[in-house]
Amino acid sequence: MKVRCSSEKKDVRAVWFEDGDVRMIDQRKLPRNLEFVSFDNYVDVAEAIKNMTVRGAPSIGASAAYAMCLASLKGADLKRAAEEIKSARPTANDLFYAVDWMYGLLIDGEDPVKAADAYAQSMVDKCTAIGKYGEPLIKDGAKVMTHCNAGALATVDVGTALAPMRAARDAGKDFFVYVSETRPRLQGMQLTAWELVQEDIGHSIIPDGASAHYMSKGVDLIITGADRIAANGDFANKIGTLDKAIVAKHYGIPFYVAAPVSTFDFSTKTGKDIVIEERSEKEVTEICGCRIAPEGSKALNPAFDVTEAEMVTGFITEEGILKPSEIKKVLR
Ligand code: MRU
Pairing with 285, which of 99, 192, 262, 298 sits 20 to 30 Å away (CA)? Predict the structure, then answer.
């Protein structure tokens, strides 16, 4: 992604490997500050996944691949490292996919840096293909809605849900994006909107509760990412996705999910089997460390929800756009 660093525009990735270190954008500091962090051991990379320095399923996967790379370079017990890295977060399939992929190659004696770099690059290539397949869905003058962050930050580079938008912008199309803020961690407002500013794509941030209002007035399509897609096409994505899918169905608005094959988990039969991460209630009751909820109130904070396959118009993948009924046949 091209980002404004002081006065110049620089090419950066969400996560990469350089001079023996795993480097990444500290996504917790955006949009105020563009800061980078470096790690020289896998335990710290696993912690960065856990504390949301790095976010979004494909970027979490690439970070996990680099964590396995560091574990191998430092001579750590790979089995133990794999377990530790996988335990960082429970929902995004890419985390488990990447660790297993790296484990298999490292056991076979593959060069750790080459393998992890290849994994990260494959995400970028897949996202580019997702952009190519998704671009025709965005017509000139379209109003698009997205939720959470499924842009370059979440996917090493390019994005999943944002890839068709970048491609449509490159094709000279004029369109507009509604970005729902995504309480409580504000990935929509702080990350997606920041990326759209970098990309000069017209957009407005809307409160999560305003999605139905704008859909009732005319949204042409919704594109979100996914954190895990079960074998039957049910999928987990950031909390608030289900509400949008239900309202989209009510108004007959096409609902697309953009994701690479690494997000599909055919060992999970349906959405009911997806583990949903429960996060600290402080993310709900506090803003910038200051309590805003009444003392004595408790809060619930599921990080993701599950949307049934029947609400999905199509999955935009690197293999093309697939109906929920086609995913097993084409991707397995
Ligand atoms: O909890 P996060 O910030 O890691 O959330 C993940 C996401 O960014 C989204 O759910 C996204 O829509 C899918 S991953 C491209």
Answer: 192
